[in-house]
């Protein structure tokens, strides 16, 4: 371990993860406050409807938005590293144009489909127009350009600050709705305002930082014209969009499947368990966000980035085992304290899902390594195979065993993702000598 920390890149990964962790820790606590207020201020059915409205918009945004931050980090990082600011600006311009277009398409599509889907998800006619209005958030949810720009410019501290904004506003709004008795519309408004202002805060940070670096022209959106100067731009974004749309929609789709089969009450319990689990997996997510930009500065033909992946994976896996123990010991009293005794069945579900933590955390570097090696197509295939298996298991086991089946399916789905990612990563490592570096042609400094 002493030798690990002698590696400057490894220390940088941990430093950036530390920045993000500071914001995520506060955000997770405030998020629990918001859920606790909603759980106590609403009936089980209303709480489930609130979660379904939010997850529908989040799922729609996840399905249509391109993961342009991946593209920015993959190509703008080496461009800046080699002194080509023009190419870095083109990369960001292309990503920004794509974000705007996909956000608008996603909003229109989600609004148009909701009247036909609302009945399947348990959204009654009284709340249909509220749910449709909530879909206007989808364009602001496509904030990947802002996130990617800040990561490339190594401003993880600003991302950490922004991560507190949404949960702070949501917690405060939920508390007001609870104590003032505003009911379901009040809680929906609290969620809406918090998401909107949180996304705008991230864009504000990105604009300020790009202006400071004399790169504000990067936020002049462009797509087709700019793409002609960027080799493989469309191929990369379409592939990563498909892979990450599947990944981003994993949670919302799971909740909607449970709602369709078991109803809003079960969907609310599932949301509580998955939210607690998602909070517990944040250490791996934070390490991944700090790890990915750093390996983009390294030569993939050398063992160093691959060894860095093993080290960070082992560290995250060890943290995962500790988190599993903490959740098993403290999950039940936490749910009872935060949400009340009527939500304790969520802990039975959480006990099954929590074992996926160590798997997810230990294997988080695999996807980043595939992108570094230019094997985004392999990552897409792995995601599709694993998610198809997971959704099939989720539908079958939930229908047969209820929420217990949903928990078992979640655990098996995590195993499937890990195995499907591991195989192409090992193949890419064995063939690393043939990888191009840098990934794009850059102008001479």
TrEMBL record:
Residue spans crossing the bilayer: 20-42, 96-121, 127-153, 174-194, 247-270, 306-329, 349-366, 378-396, 408-429
Keyword tRNA processing: no
Keywords from the named record: Cell membrane, Membrane, Transmembrane, Transmembrane helix
Topology relative to the membrane: Multi-pass membrane protein
Membrane keyword on record: yes
InterPro entries given in the database record: Poly_Biosynth_Transport (IPR050833)
Places the protein is found: Cell membrane
Protein name: Lipopolysaccharide biosynthesis protein
Originating organism: Sphingomonas hylomeconis
